[in-house]
Amino acid sequence: MPTTRRALLISGLAVCATQRPRRALADASAYRWQPTATDTLAARFAPPAGFQRAAAAPGSFAAWLRGLPLKPAGAPVLLYTGAPKFRQDVHAAVIDIDVGTRDLQQCADAAMRLRAEWLYAMQRPGEIAFNDTGSGQPISFSRWAAGERPRMSGRALVWSRAATPDAGYASFRRYLDTVFTRAGTHSLERQLAAAPINDIAAGDLFIKGGFPGHAVLVADAVKSAAGATRFLLLQSFMPAQQIHVLKNLHDADASPWYRLDFGDRLATPEWVFARDSLRRWR
């Protein structure tokens, strides 16, 4: 989408996508699941002293991630059942987004959910597609919206007309639940491109494909004048749970801002990633 200084038109409403000031509110038209305005990720988490956010183009994934709405400070992480997660010491904030009522929206699913929500808000539905684990073939929202539904035939993913065409938001959410049952860390790692760690940016993922595997999404990145980089991480986990901003429990003050000079292994509270596990959307 071209970079301009005018407001973006999203669902018929003008939405300013420039960097939001402190105490900014999330715009409900860009975050369709969220009917009320709340504090945003960028407002809650100012860069550490001496660091600044890089410019993010209006309408970019990075700008959208910075505007994610948050639950009130101190909110617990809840499972899809409504029960609290066993560990409540790993998060610095909870993203105000539904987790569904089934054990589906886990780690890679959370990253796919956010990516798809951004594309849907930007009116780019033709780019919403995630690969099926078994066949490696794309599960595209365009075909779903046209009324087609996927099923396996041998090792191939085949589509057939099975529903009334519907590109509305409720249909989009049903599509995502189908994606969550058919895609995961194994397929997503292969769908993404390797990214150089020194070029880490909002929207990238640290991912280890497997059964189980894990994935965390880079929600924001900041730099100092000396060239140092720090970044925020989001995750869901098993069982399906609310997406949350991770603390760095290896930091003296458990800061959510991770340092790029973490060595050969990135230790997050519930998973350790290899330094070369950074991936980027193609």
Beta-strand content bin? 25-35%
Count of alpha and pi helical runs: 6
Q: Please mark out the parts with pLDDT under 50 across 5 or more consecutive residues, or reply none.
A: 1-23
Domain tally: 2
Please tell me what the overall shape is.
globular
Span from first to last CA? 15 Å
SSE order, one letter for each helix or strand: EEHEHEHEEHEEHHEEEEEEEEE
Radius of gyration (Å): 18 Å
Number of strands: 17
pLDDT averaged residue by residue: 90
User: In percent, how helical is the residue content?
Assistant: 10-25%
The main pleated sheet reads as: 9 strands, antiparallel
Which structural class is indicated by helix and strand composition?
Answer: alpha+beta
Q: What features would you describe in this structure?
A:
The protein is an alpha+beta fold. The protein folds into two domains: 1-108 and 184-282, no CATH class; 109-183, no CATH class. It is 18% helix and 25% strand. Strands 3, 4, 9, 10, 11, 12, 13, 14 and 17 form a nine-stranded antiparallel β-sheet that branches. Strands 1-2 form a two-stranded antiparallel ribbon. Strand 12 and strand 13 (244-246) form a beta hairpin. The protein is globular, with a radius of gyration of 18 Å. The relative contact order is 0.17. Residues 1-23 have low confidence and may be disordered.
